[in-house]
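Memo to structure team: turn this sequence into structure tokens by end of day. - J.P.
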Amino acid sequence: MCEVRQPSAPPFNAPAARRLRAALGMGPEHVAYGMRASYGLPYVTPDLVIAWERGTAAPSHPELTALAGVLWCSPGELFGRPQTLREHRVARAVAPEDVARAVGMDVRSYLRMEESGQWRGNERQSAALAQALDLALPDFVAVTGREAKLAELLHSAVTTRWQAYVRPVRKLAPMDSAVLEEVLQGLYEDYQGHMAATLSWGGGSTSASDSGREFLDRIVENFWNSVEDRTVR
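Reply from structure team:
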């Protein structure tokens, strides 16, 4: 018998839920009653609402949708930063049928990709997905499964010749060529300078290796931070 894989709970922003409830002048008992009466969730109690707000429990997708309805907000306002394709879609309150139609595939195929966490769309479908869910470039790269490849390319760019990686990186993360060149050069110089400084402090090759590894472990984060710094000037 095939086991049905249940979707994981979305990243829940507990402080936001508590803040929204307080702004409406509601107590946990009012929230619980609204979820029971209006959304058919008879098991929701004030204690469960408090547990959500304290971060000791997290609502499921249906519970989060109902909670958003009771608090007069969108599900996205109760999310932490979405990580997966499903979380981005739910955060924007978009039906899977609408996304599937936008990208040109049947809804079952689309939902299988959500459940597996593996996006298999072509370039045209990927572009349509980004538009349908209004994905920022870092989120687009992550949900289409390109982040690991991006990390690999960035690793090579900062440890060898960054100029050779402008085109491959731009293919994964489309952006202005001038910005990308500036970012890659900056990361290369940061990494090489960091390694040289570590050695000059007398830490030896082991310390340099550890420091360099830490930089590389955060290479994707460093990349996006650098892109943001250069595009908001």
